Each structure stands twice: as structure tokens, then as C-alpha cells.
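pinging the channel bc i need a second pair of eyes. not urgent but kinda urgent?? the chain im working w is below, pasted from the shared doc
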Amino acid sequence: MWNKNIETFLGCDATFEEADTVLFGAPYDCTTSYRPGTRFASHTMRGESYGIETYSPYQDKDLTDYAIFDGGDLELPFGDPIPALRMIEEATGKILDAGKRPLMIGGEHLCTLGAARATVKRYPDLYFLHFDAHADLREDYLGQRLSHATVLRRVWDLVGDHRIFQYGIRSGDREEFYWGRDHVFTHKFDLRGIEETVKCLEGKPVYFTLDLDVLDPSVFPGTGTPEAGGVTFPELMEAMAQLSRLSIVACDVNELCPPLDPSGISTAMACKVLRELLLYLH
């Protein structure tokens, strides 16, 4: 299943056996509620990643100093999310069973549910750290329980109360926010206070899920459901720097929609965020 990929994300060209982190794409966006196109994110990011350097001046680290494997994209069926989620779960499980950390590039945010299912099975005491513009806590969206607008509610179904920590949330219907008060920890609008949460999560297994629309659309317009009032790139970097203190056993980056930003700026930023995330994990 995990043959060496012909085109890899910048610096992620170790073999599967050598790697401690395994990158893979989940090109799926069939429940996107507004503007589709996130299925093209992982492929586009690989090609555009060569416009940045492997070296991070933020961390004084270089991707070439670490063993990271890019396994390419899963071939996910269109339409029904159930088989797509099953395939994501199986792929994530194989990576975890090999003693490696999966890092998935979405795709829409629903893809997280497949990876979450596999990770919870292996880490029953798993916690979730979630950066996003949207709460994603709806019970259903237009009658559908599997949607990128319901994904964190479905994660809650797996882990229960007070195991999900959300930051940057600035959009959702009233029911989501009211329900969330009793069941999850939600920090609205920005990423301030992340240090306290990280302190609480130290020593615990953590799944980190990053919806790139947490960034303000003035700096990241290439996303399907942009929300004004987001964070800046430096603010995101400052918050992500805390990740090195955590035991992150799996993670994902999602909701880049390359066709919506033909300038390429959003893709370039997504590549840089992914580079920094990979380095914070090592």
C-alpha cells in the first residue's frame, strides 16, 4: 500500500520503513456545504511546495534532517462518505500499527473523522486539539449526520465530554454554541490561552486537527467557507509552537481550496504551515 510516491511534499522523501511520520492525502470534498475544491489540495501542495525552502528560520530546523515519508493520495470514491471514511480509517490504522505518526492532508474537514476513528481505537484516552473558524458541532446539516459541518460532533460521539479543545471559533449556529458549552472547551475568535490548554494536555495522547480557515481570509482566501475575523500567520505560528510540548499521535491539515485562489498565495501559505507543523512534531 505504501510505495514511495513519485511526487512528494518538499523534503518528505524517506522510505516508509525509515520514517517516523507518514504524510498522505485524502482528496475528498463531497459534503462541502458552500464552495468545493478541497479535493485538489494535497496534489497542489506537493507541486507548489518546491517554492519554499526545507529550512525553517522560525525553528532553526530543516526537513531534510528528519525521516518523513509521503505516501501520496488515497483513491477515495466520490459521493457516499461512508466508504471514503472507511478507507481513511484503514490507512490511518496501518500507519499507527507500524509505530508511526499519520499526518493527513485534506480534503474537507469530514476526512478527520476517518482518521479519528482509527486513532481512538488505539488511544482510548485520546484528546483533540482543534483550530478552526467553525465549531463543526451540528448534530446534522440539512439532515445529514456526516458532513464537514458536523465532524467535531461525530468526534465527540467517539470521545465524549471535555476531550475536545477548540480555538479560533467564530462561526456556527446558536445551537452549536449552546450545546458546546456543556460538552467541549471552545475558545472563540482567536488562539489566545493555548498555553493553558497545552499544560493540561501534556503527557496525554493528542490528535491535532487544523482547519486552515482559522486564518483570516485577507491572508488565506483559498478556502471553501471563508470567515472574516481570523488569525494572522504569525499568530498561528506562535500557537503551533506549543505543539512541541505535546504527545501528538496523529494530526491533519485541511480545507485548502486551491481553485478559489488562482494567485497561489493560499497554497503557498498552506505549504509553509505544513512545513512548520512537520518540524514542530520533531
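so Helices lie at 41-48, 81-97, 111-122, 151-159, 174-183, 194-201, 233-240, 265-280. and The CA atoms of residues 11 and 63 lie 5 Å apart. — does that match what u expected or am i reading it wrong
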